[in-house]
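The aim of this short unit is practical: by the end, you should be able to scan a pair of folded records and say something sensible about each. We start with the first protein, listed as its amino acid sequence and then its structure tokens.
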Amino acid sequence: MTALDFRRRLVRHSEFGSLQETFLVSAVVTILVIRTQLWATNYPQLGGGGLHIAHLLWGGVFMTITIGALLTYLGRPPRRPAAVLGGIGFGFFVDELGKFITSDNDYFFEPAAGLIYLILIGLFLLNRSMRRGPALTSAEYVANALDIIGQAPRGAFDERQRRIAEDLLDRADRDDPLAPAVRALLERIDAAPARPPAAPALRVAALRRRAEQVVATAAFQRGVWTVFAVWAIGSALVVLSLVLSVGLELGHARRGAVSDSIGELSIMNIGSVASSFLAGLLVLVGAARLRHGGRLAAYRLFERALLVQIFVTNVFSFVESQFAAVFGAALNLALLVALRYVTRREEGAAGLELGADPQPSEAGLKPIPHPSGAA
């Protein structure tokens, strides 16, 4: 069997991007909960008499439950709970990374936080790459439609599921011999009335509508401009302070808030300063563009600055400051989400193509060639 034949046998789930994202979010939340709980309780240990029950074992329990559910049960219903439980198990596992890369099993190994952050960023980038990869093939669209129809024997097939299956079949090639047969089967199956969304889904939808209303206001846009204007001013002051300290102190620069010899700065210090300088420079150029009316160009420069912070500066911050750096990372992510909302509105106003298309989903959205969900 060739590699191409093997790939053809692997059928992608139409919601794999969303499921992977659920896994990743569950892992991140688990790590933060564990670290917060351990800090609040002064790092207790379960066990005694020479025994220590490491929380890595709980990770194994959750991941075993996840694998067992996927090996035992058919269809789509187990997928979302499995993504949550698998993410929790992975979070328990990777949180103990420091113990298993040090000879003395040091849970507090300083670079561990940075390594965990890099692993999570790597998984995030892999998810983005797969979601932007090749579209589902005709065979995959048909297979996913059949997967949805497979819920009929257990009474879980309703009008909403029918619409999703029809949308998937609409994407299949017209000359696909299986598509007409599957469509004929779909038309013969009685579907129950669509059930109302669950309470959590209604609350999420309400929050999304509220967020969209807030983003649409001029005050929100002014707020975003203000944040980046402050960042630009702050970046200029930091750069000026560094230059002056180098010039006036005859060969000394700042390491964080502490003056130190330039020759004694570590790779972490240099990387943090260099990436912060680059992000600040992008913000300054963006602020200049914004002042001259180039809002869309400014927003894109601001986004690049945030990406430098998230993918480069925060790595050094996690190594130096451990999990205290999570607050700065959370702020950068919140700014990125807000900026992307504003950017999309600006792109829409400019009549440009938005970067995200609707995807086939459990909510019944029309599918597009990319199989993974909205970006």
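Turning to the second protein, read its sequence before its tokens, just as you did above.
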Amino acid sequence: MHFFRPLLIFASLASLILGLIAFPARSESLTIAAAADLKYAMAEVVDTFRAARPGDRIEVIYGSSGKFFTQISNGAPFDLYFSADIAYPRELEQKGLAAGKTRPYAFGRIVLWSLKPELARMPLKDLPAAAIRKFAIANPQHAPYGLRAREALQHQGVWEAMQAKLVLGENIAHTAQFVDSGAADAGIVALALVLSPTMQRKGAWTLIPAEWHAPLEQGYVITRRAAGNRLAADFASYMATEPARAVMRRYGFTLPGEEGK
């Protein structure tokens, strides 16, 4: 009888090990809709987050905050929504399409950017008389950065005079492409983009005073679809950690609680 007991224990251990091999720990997945100004900053945040959980799948899709709002309202399969305008996720929350409260993550800034330094350093009020064929901004109808660009141009009294020269990007990354490709001579883009490794050595930029436009308060929310998604909750919490905040600072974002510093 004592002879068989070790054999039974061995058989149980072997069965447990085989079970673990046959049924490995389940990986989780997360799909994020992110404003285009986060193209570079979010990529770094995701990399640092993923380092501790390499088995999980995280996909980030970048685009216009307004268009993402419409898509999520119509059932698009996004788990987390990072908007360049906090009003959009708050509206999802009001509609019952969010799994929790909207959280602010940053304040964005806009800059005048051009591959020609003399244009980038020009006062906005002098733009109509400058040698500019095309001037790029994001579409104010659905892109928060485009709306703030329009407000800045209106503040300087040149919005109407610039109408014939405007080219509108689908989002702020698309707007930056117009300038980068030469399709536009200059444009108003996100500070976070011109500070990226691929763009910081191109041309020149001038920060547009924050007082010339409404604040670009940005926020994120877990969608109703992801109510039980632990990975979505973990990533949402990670955005408040110092490693994630450090990345956001490097890309020129002002963080909640650090306004005025």
